[in-house]
Amino acid sequence: MSLVTSCKNLIQLTLEGCIRVTDESLKAVGESCIRDLNLGEGGCYLITDLGLEYLADGDLKNCLQHLNLAECNQISDSGIIFLKSMAALTELSLSECGVHVTNYAIADVLSHLSNIEILDLSWLINVTDISLLAIGSKCVKLQKILLTGCEAISAEGLRSFSGHQTLKRLELFSCYNFSWEDVESVALTCTKLEYLELMKRIKTPTPEFSFGYLQIQHNHCGIDWDEDSEFLFW
């Protein structure tokens, strides 16, 4: 708290592995103009919904562009909902935030965050097609979305990205409830798409695994199958 209040020009703060960072710590952060805040991937397990409310209450909501909450598994829909006031966000990670983050908050929040370019929802098992329908229609600047481990999504959710004008990267490892036909129908309409991650065990027979790319107009889209198969980089 002392660091944040005394360093008026601070724009980036990484607290990975800081196990004693609590909601009270985020009071000062919420009053700052930090643009890049990393609370994820290894340690900020004491952050709760109250901490997210503190972040959204102050000037931070008008400045913050990158927010990493990966593995902050004490947060829930009640806290996530405060993020919709952070209109400047371009990058958000909620990876492994646990079972209490669901479609209710994801769809609502991302309907308000039209500037999002990078979104990581990996291993959120309660994310379904409802979330993807909101993301596909509202996040018009989206370039990269990570959905690894979101096993509940199906063809309906995947097809919500059909015709997306900015999407470059789509990661779908550990997702099985759609077919190669669904993947192809989406990929061929996303003219900026450069990279796909897929499982061999999706519903219908896939092309030969040496088939490591799709031709989309004049562009190649690389395909990375799961770890047991070959990836060709184009």
TrEMBL record:
InterPro entries: Leu-rich_rpt, Leu-rich_rpt_Cys-con_subtyp, LRR_dom_sf. One of its GO terms (biological process) is SCF-dependent proteasomal ubiquitin-dependent protein catabolic process. Transmembrane segments: none annotated. It comes from the Eukaryota. It holds the Pfam family LRR_6. One of its GO terms (cellular component) is SCF ubiquitin ligase complex. This is Leucine-rich repeat domain superfamily. It comes from Helianthus annuus (Common sunflower).
